[in-house]
């Protein structure tokens, strides 16, 4: 058993608090991704789990053991660094076997484990090389190999793919996913790339300003973002936003108005709103459909025709920039006026505090 | 596991060789070449010539290798060479050991780190002769502070500079005290340039503080190590000021090093002979330092 439990974890550097009380449960075998913008505290949180940063307050349990003051080597973890941190003076073989050597593992067993890891990662032919003789992707493999041989309960990855080129990143992403299935270990993965988060994670934890904004399954976060931040961060291209006012309520349908668009009907079952409330409307670029008399009208600024889809960059009446991603090829051109509709169930409304009004209790979502 | 993705190997683009068609860049070498020529090349070749002459500073007559023959017949030459090598090896080894130790200490999280770094470096700034005179006073057999201190503990201190078998070691100790600051600074520069990631990875791999030193700090500060070894070794071989300020090669000739033997010949007016000695010293340093340098830098290209 290697469940991870973080309770009110805090981290301060002097007077500056960078992690502001994080509660999180990570089940055994889960692939959890910490995602957030630079400086949100995701790497710090990972390093606290690794034992490389002290925990200022709160408790960290790995399995049933309180690990706040346990040395990294005794936590049953392995970590892959963004820079890979391969020891430059050792061969791949020695790099991978370094932890076992320090643990005074018998030489035969050590050799077998190193070769097993090399076989899993298809790098048997690299064992005699030094890190400087490897390409970025190969170094990545060695770094993962070094983590595997220790047979940890928990793997920690600190932006491991950010130094690779785009094509290799996609390959390694798939490999990591396979590796997770193969090993069945818990993996915690830090990235600022929301696509990586969406594709790899069983559970995404969105962090900002040292706090958990939302934690949940990727599709859950995409479809039901708890607040404006998560809505803006998850999903590519970004969600379109516009300040609106509630005009009227018809059962489960809220009618909103704004200067830049015509009245728009949004269906949100069970949501509470009063006419006159100021809200923020959010619509994903993929939710927009062309329709000449749709409530959303704008002037096309830029069209990116990718063949299978068309990305339209347009300006609303008041100058707000929005994006629409349309299926198939659309021969629109710059300067053209286009109208869009949005199905009633698609738009999201956020209250004055930025919370999604469809999610009554954001705390409940957080704990999920 | 069946990973099917093959990793493309990044082949670094071959740097294009630019054809040097213009002599223009060569002109920029000229100022440095002139300075180097006047201050180094000409004196070096001049001394090679004068070592083959009987030279009185005003006129010289060519006498072939007679000066070298005379130099090697110098009665205390062997003692001087042995002392020189002992001095160089000892100061070099101790500077490496203490320099590395201090550098590790001064790169760790300790109080007043900046102040301590300055304190360790201060002796480097003091005039060598001044250091020599101060330590000569401190090492006085009866009145010196060292033996006075030992006396308080009931220990009768030796004659640090008056005991013939001890004098060269005492001078070497002072040289280590004087020069360890520079070695420390070089080691500090080497250690702080080691990325912190390696230490963190090693901690996760389970390395203790000592293991991190042995497996990370020591091998990765090798460029600094090479610099310190070469500099201290050459400095040790050429050492003159400290020996002269503290013992003048004495008692007798017990702490004479090559440089002090040569200086004595200068004083006696044998300019050609002492120049020959300098040529021998130059060759000796080159003969020991160059192979050492090549040895220490072996395989560096793979790292």
Topology:
The complex is a heterodimer of chains A (about 375) and B (about 300).
Chain A: E1 4-13, E2 16-26, E3 31-35, H1 42-50, E4 57-62, E5 65-66, E6 77-80, H2 92-102, H3 107-120, H4 136-148, E7 154-158, H5 166-183, E8 186-191, H6 194-200, E9 203-208, E10 211-216, H7 218-223, H8 228-233, E11 240-250, E12 253-257, E13 264-267, E14 278-283, E15 289-290, E16 296-305, E17 309-316, E18 321-327, E19 337-341, E20 348-350, H9 362-367
Parallel strand pairs in A: 3-8, 3-9, 6-7, 7-8
Antiparallel strand pairs in A: 1-2, 1-4, 4-5, 9-10, 11-12, 11-14, 12-13, 14-20, 15-19, 16-17, 16-19, 17-18
Chain B: H1 30-50, E1 53-55, E2 60-62, H2 66-72, H3 77-107, H4 113-125, H5 128-138, H6 145-152, H7 167-192, H8 196-205, H9 209-220, H10 222-238, H11 241-246, H12 258-267, H13 271-296
Antiparallel strand pairs in B: 1-2
Can you characterise this structure?
- The complex is a heterodimer of chains A (368) and B (303).
- By secondary structure, chain A is of the alpha+beta class.
- Chain A folds into two domains: 229 residues, P-loop containing nucleotide triphosphate hydrolases (Rossmann fold, 3-Layer(aba) Sandwich); 135 residues, OB fold (Dihydrolipoamide Acetyltransferase, E2P).
- Chain A contains nine helices and 20 strands.
- Chain A is elongated.
- By secondary structure, chain B is an all-alpha fold.
- Chain B has a domain of 204 residues: Orthogonal Bundle (MetI-like fold).
- Chain B has a two-stranded antiparallel sheet with strand order 1-2.
- In chain B, strand 1 and strand 2 form a beta hairpin.
- In chain B, helix 2 crosses helix 13, helix 3 runs antiparallel to helix 10 and helix 7 packs antiparallel against helix 10.
- The longest helix of chain B is centred in the N-terminal third of the chain and has 31 residues.
- Chain B is flat, with a radius of gyration of 25 Å.
- The N terminus of chain B is likely disordered.
- The interface between A and B is medium-sized, with 40 and 27 residues.
